Amino acid sequence: MGTGRDLELELDGQVAAKQARQQPGGRGSKRGRCDIPKVASTPPHPVMTPIEPTRRDVLQRALQTGALALVGSTASCGAGLRRTPNQAYLELPSTPPGAVAMGLDRNATPAEICRDAVARITDLAWLNKGDSVFIKIACNSDNEHPAVTYPAAVEAMVALLRERGAGTIYVGDQAGVEHVRLTQGGRDSSTRAAMANNGLLDAVTRAEATLHCFDDQGWDGYVQPEIDFPSHWERRPWLPKILEQVDHIVVLPRLGSHALSGYTCGIKIAVGWLRDDSRMLLHQRGASFFEKIAEINYLRPLRDKLRLTLTLGTHGLLNIGPDFGAEHDFGGHFVIASNSLVDHDAVAAALIPWLDRHDASIFDLYSSYPADVDFFNRGFVADFWGESAMADYQPIQAYALGHHIALDPCLSRLAVLEGYRPSHTNVQVVGDGLPQGMGDYLDRYSGRPFRLVGT
Q1: Which of 117, 236, 412, 430 is exposed most, by the fewest CB atoms within 10 A?
Q2: Is the pLDDT confidence value at 143 over 90?
Q3: DSSP code of 315?
Q4: What is the pLDDT of residues 283-295, one digit of tens each?
Q5: Strands (E), 218-362
Q6: What is the pLDDT of residue 44?
Q7: DSSP one-letter code for 144
Q8: What 3-state DSSP class applies to 49?
Q9: Which has the closest alpha carbon to 74: 356, 376, 395?
Q10: Is 0.90 surpassed by the pTM of this model?
């Protein structure tokens, strides 16, 4: 794997190549849309340069004139993007390979898929009879999957844990501040109500699990854990007290784009643990937005109790997120499972640009990420925490998705904290295999971090 300077030179080379292709008549020209520079994989394997135009290319060319009329031009292509790799990550010593189970299954039930995927990456030896488990879901809004965790995945995971002897199984989250607010002054709406609308409450009820929404616990239902590592958090964040009481944590996210963070999966949904004042600090001090998200996952007791991350669903959310956008239909159940957040989200982050590239929708006309991230975050802070919060505002600097892990400030930050830089990640293919073209894309991904097993 190259040095940080090597990656910057590769990025510059990609910019030059893309600028040439964007000239009139140049191959791959996409007027009216920002082409984000990409770090090339080891020659002669390009990262994402399809030879033939995809359905999305055809739709974009057909709608270019309308797109310009509707949304106008935004920031210049690539302006303001983070371009410097995380040198601390590149300097980590290589560790043994990681492991992910992933695949598409068109016939098996969610329970069968969950059981098989989990068995590929852990024997659940950490679960003793009677142990309590908290299943952290993604319920940012009352919109249905893929804007939230797939309800059938909740039932499948609860059933598996119960089969293996788990005691009390909690399921919960706290929705985004644009939908649910819990402040010292009181509460507006509730995560429970959101779950009643998106199918998650019914799933928890059918599974006979214990619902535990953090906003139901009140303002004092949180604790401030000590930070025992160099941190970007200016003040210790507040996390739910339930984390100190349960034996194990399982994360059950969804696969999707995010208007501010680019993508959301296992690492990003840790924001749901935060109390309102800590969420304010995360958005207000945007210069370290990505690093702060990573560091939530390394706080005790999260880092000591997280055992498993599993994404299971029928659709992925693209282009906008986290609450709406294009919905990619997998044509079956797609699963990603790992006992490592870093491995799980390395694969998830790689897939979002590929899925987006091969999916055409009206949402291709505009996406806030990466060009307008700070514009929308400024409005977010001002709208929900007031103009006084803007006095200490720091802008978010986005990065380009779909590149070397060292260029992902969130993913690489968590890896540095864990001292974890696997020589590669073994992707055990399960079910009916991978969607056409996905395996080849992962095999050629920048830095060659993935090795497909079982294809």
Answers
A1: 236
A2: yes
A3: E
A4: 999 999 999 999 9
A5: 222-223, 239-240, 248-252, 256-258, 262-264, 306-318, 326-338
A6: 29
A7: P
A8: coil
A9: 376
A10: no
Beta bridge partners of 249: 134, 306
Please provide residue 453's backbone torsions phi and psi, each rounded to the nearest 5 degrees.
-125, 135
The pLDDT of residue 411 is above 90 = yes
Cα–Cα distance for residue pair 49/28, rounded to 1 Å: 8
Split at pLDDT 50, 70, 90, the class of 7 is: low
Tell me if 106 sits within 8 A of 432, measured CB to CB.
yes
CA gyration radius for the chain?
21
In angstroms, what CA-CA distances link 13 with 95, 336, 437, 438? Answer: 30, 33, 25, 25
Measured CA to CA, the distance from residue 269 to residue 323 in angstroms comes to 13
Residue range 260-275, pLDDT digits in tens = 999 999 999 999 999 9
Q: How far is CA 218 from CA 72, 142, 197, 201, in A?
A: 44, 20, 22, 20
Q: Where are the beta strands (DSSP E) in 253-293?
A: 256-258, 262-264
pLDDT one-digit tens code per residue, 83-125: 999 999 999 999 999 999 999 999 999 999 999 999 999 999 9
Closest CA to 132 of 167, 98, 176: 167
Q: Are 382 and 389 in contact (CB under 8 A)?
A: yes
pLDDT digits (tens, 9 = 90+) for 160-180: 999 999 999 999 999 999 999
Extract the tokens encoding 163.
């089969």
> Which two structure tokens, joined as six digits, stand for 237?
């964040």
Q: What is the pLDDT of residue 454?
A: 86
Kindly give the pairing relationship between strand 133-137 and strand 326-338.
unpaired
- Which positions ≥6 away from 94 have C-beta within 8 Å? 421, 422, 423
Spell out the alpha helix ranges (H) of 392-451. 409-418, 438-443
User: What is the domain partition of the chain in residue ranges?
Assistant: 4-71, 96-453
Q: How far apart are CA 112 and CA 386, in angstroms?
A: 48
Write down the architecture of domain 96-453 according to CATH. Answer: 3-Layer(aba) Sandwich (3.40)
Q: Tokens representing 216?
A: 């139901």
Do residues 262 and 398 make contact, with C-beta atoms less than 8 angstroms apart?
Answer: yes
